[in-house]
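Hi, here's the filled form for the chain we discussed.

Project: internal
Contact: R.S.
Residues: 374
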Amino acid sequence: MNIKFFRLLIFIFLGACQSSPPPLPNPIINVDTPAETIKLDGQPSLVLVTGSLAIIRNRPDVSAAEIARYKKNDTLLFVNELSRHTLEIKLDDIVYDEPWLKVALPNQNGLEGWVFAGSLRFLQTPSLDLQSLTMARRIDKILGAGWNDKLQAYNQEFNEMQTDIAFQMVWQRAEQIKVDLEQKINELYNQSVSSQKNDFAWINDVFNGYQLYWLDEKQQFALYKNLSSWLPKTIQTADTSDEYFLNNYLLLYANDSSEFWYTDLNIRKSANDTLLYSLLGRNIHSQILAQTTNYSQDNLFKSHYADLRQIVINDILLCDRFWLDIETVKKELKTILNAPDYNLNKNNRISLEARLAVLENYQANGIIVNGIEN
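And the returned structure, exactly as it came back:
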């Protein structure tokens, strides 16, 4: 496709999807293109402003004349040219050491300029060359030496898994990386004194299978599996154990195929409410226990099935708020206890029987029911 035509199509789209940038402070300035730049092959690609402000300059230099300013979530078009040199700049209390990218500005008649890469993220997966020149530097600069190698090795395994054994190993490895990465991101966030906090949105581009969320309820970042990106991996493997496991795991997050800090076993009264109500009585708990019973002895995923089933049981044991009326709640709990094929272990059975006794006298025990009507 002709590159100029491609850019025209992109800008027609951008013009419809975002507000115009602030007015130019001066008449249009000629943009210098220094000899010390790197030109990449391929089509131009969209980039998103993730810093609080992105300043477009006529040269890849912090002292160069300004052409325009763009705010967070505005979109620009990277035209496959970047500076050979990098620069350390602090943005939103994070120090970046990155090159300058040449971008085309929307609604500016083809005007191009230079923007510091640290204020952007790529909306399309960058080429390996571009990753090594930009994201690799960012990862090690911000997260620490060795993090880029760790994430690259993991992403390669994620993309190339061919067996259910490989899937299980990548699943476990991802869990450990998630814990370490969450800790690092929250440490950086808590060290910041800026009123404009960094949103670390670029993490989504470098950690396959996960999505980063900011949790207002807990005032921290959290990484959750994007299960829709894991499902194709189970299909590409030669075996079916991983596919059965993931389909059963998806029962906890059937609404949007993404993990979150609460599951589909619960509900909130509003998006801003931190109180969770159990949906025991809607037969979601019993359905998951029934469907996982047949696979819970799978040697490869045995511990994962045990964890999944325990999430269901813990919701019954620990939640003191229920969405439905007490009789409907008790009915499903009795169904679970009386089902001969749910394969409950002794400790869980004893605990669930004790829970039923508590629900029989729910008012005296401070249990809230019928949240749907209150």
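Let me know if anything looks off before we file it.
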